[in-house]
UniProtKB/TrEMBL annotation:
It comes from the Bacteria. Keywords: Cell membrane, Membrane, Transmembrane, Transmembrane helix. This is APA family basic amino acid/polyamine antiporter. It comes from Agromyces hippuratus. One of its GO terms (molecular function) is transmembrane transporter activity. PROSITE patterns: TAT (PS51318). The chain crosses the membrane at residues 12-33, 39-66, 87-112, 118-135, 147-171, 191-209, 229-251, 281-303, 324-343, 349-368, 400-417. It is a multi-pass membrane protein. GO terms for cellular component: plasma membrane. It is found in: Cell membrane.
Length: 425
């Protein structure tokens, strides 16, 4: 029986909200400390490099989404322009890697709000609640994402204001030597450290792909999707630049690198102790926003792959009333709950970083093949994005590279076995 299609219910504002929920997630509350450990005072150079690579990838994604306004994102683009294998590998890396990321976001949410013994039950409850929102339709998802994004942006504005006060007062002593935190020590950590920080920062705000994975549910997709990606990307870069400058200025490279909760430390360095609980709650809410967008994106990518029989066909079922891939979303939620309940994910999701870079590498290579009539950005920008992905892969920790290769090998074996098992003819 032919399945009903997804419904085009998202306008520009709703698409931007979902993209921002993915980009301005829990990462902004934690990524600057490890980035400062890698780059020292060169943190802002790392951010600039990450922003450029993300800009190239966003351009490729927007250009392809205008041509292929369907569910699946880079899975669909790779399959259409490069062949079945590149498309499958992009989709597999996204589905497997981001499923682990969902579990990590749920645990991050719980870690900010509950003592250790209650964190796993609270994380499971969060997954159930967010899945229930997604299952009620993409419009409901967009409304919840809008509320979350507004709240998180308000908290980040508070952090930036506190950081400006701390820098001005010298409360943290970060710039007491009389030099700017962006001064002569910038390159002391070496370019490898700066590239490593760029990799960390890139993963933190590369969620604009969620807009592309929802391409089948956006109204006027050829016009709306590129605009939504551009707006969400611009806002995210401005937010990260403001927060990064505030954190570096308030705490200094050494203090920032040593921080466990850097944005909480920023408001405390300003003497705004009353704001610390607000920032912690903001981080928890941001994790929920990322979880909301991730579950929706994984469900749509799994739907696209199941339609092509790259994943089990039942995952392609669409709910007749709510017009969502309900079987795929329930399956993903169950896997995430199982991971939350049983696995310590702190050191187990390095392959997600590897998978994200493969995903965007496929998108950039697909964009390079588009004819001039479909091109919205210079071909050189897509080529630069592909090179950037490869450079960032090379800077990943060896354990992440090994884990990524293993995950993709498992995916390739699954595809070969499942295709061999299909009835001939």
């Amino acid at each position: 029986m032919e399945q009903p299609s997804l419904a085009r219910r998202l306008g520009l504002r709703q698409a931007v909200a979902i993209g921002l929920a993915a980009m301005i997630g829990a990462g902004v509350f934690s990524v600057f400390a490890p980035a400062a450990q890698a780059a020292g005072a060169g943190l802002m150079i790392g951010l600039a490099i990450a922003a450029f690579v993300a800009l190239a990838n966003a351009g490729s994604t927007a250009q392809l989404a205008a041509r292929y306004p369907e569910s699946g994102g880079a899975y669909r683009y790779g399959r259409e322009r490069l062949g079945e294998w590149p498309g499958f590998l992009a989709g597999w890396g996204f589905v497997v890697g981001k499923t682990a990321s969902c579990a990590a976001m749920a645990m991050t949410f719980a870690a900010y709000l509950a003592p250790p013994d209650w964190q796993r039950p609270l994380a499971v409850a969060a997954v159930v609640a967010i899945a229930a929102v997604d299952l009620r339709g993409i419009s409901r998802t967009a409304r919840v994402a809008t509320v979350i994004v507004i709240g998180v942006l308000g908290v980040l504005a508070l952090v930036v204001a506190a950081g400006a006060t701390a820098t001005f007062d010298g409360a943290s002593g970060a710039v007491s030597s009389g030099s700017s935190p962006f001064g002569s020590t910038t390159i002391d950590q070496g370019w490898l450290g700066i590239l490593q920080s760029a990799g960390l920062l890139f993963f933190a705000f590369a969620g604009y792909a969620r807009i592309a994975t929802l391409g089948e549910e956006v109204r006027e997709p050829a016009r709306t999707i590129p605009r939504a990606i551009g707006i969400a990307f611009a806002v995210a870069v401005l937010v990260y630049a403001g927060v990064g400058a505030a954190a570096l200025g308030a705490l200094g490279p050494t203090g920032l690198a040593a921080s466990v909760a850097p944005l909480v430390d920023v408001v405390e360095a300003a003497g705004w102790q009353w704001a610390a609980p607000v920032v912690r709650v903001g981080a928890a809410v941001a994790a929920l926003g990322a979880l909301l967008a991730l579950l929706a994106g994984i469900g749509r990518t799994a739907l696209a792959m199941a339609r092509d029989e790259e994943l089990p066909p039942p995952l392609a079922r669409v709910h007749p009333r709510f017009r969502v891939p309900h079987v795929a979303e329930i399956a993903v939620a169950l896997v995430v709950i199982a991971l939350v309940a049983t696995v310590d994910l702190r050191g187990a999701i390095g392959f997600s970083s590897f998978g994200v870079l493969v995903y965007y590498l496929v998108a950039n290579l697909a964009a390079i093949t588009q004819p001039r009539s479909e091109r919205r950005f210079p071909q050189a920008l897509s080529a630069a994005g592909a090179v950037g992905c490869l450079v960032l892969v090379a800077t990943l920790p060896p354990v992440s590279i090994v884990a990524g290769v293993v995950v993709f090998a498992i995916g390739a074996a699954y595809r070969l076995i499942s295709r061999a098992a299909r009835p001939s003819g």
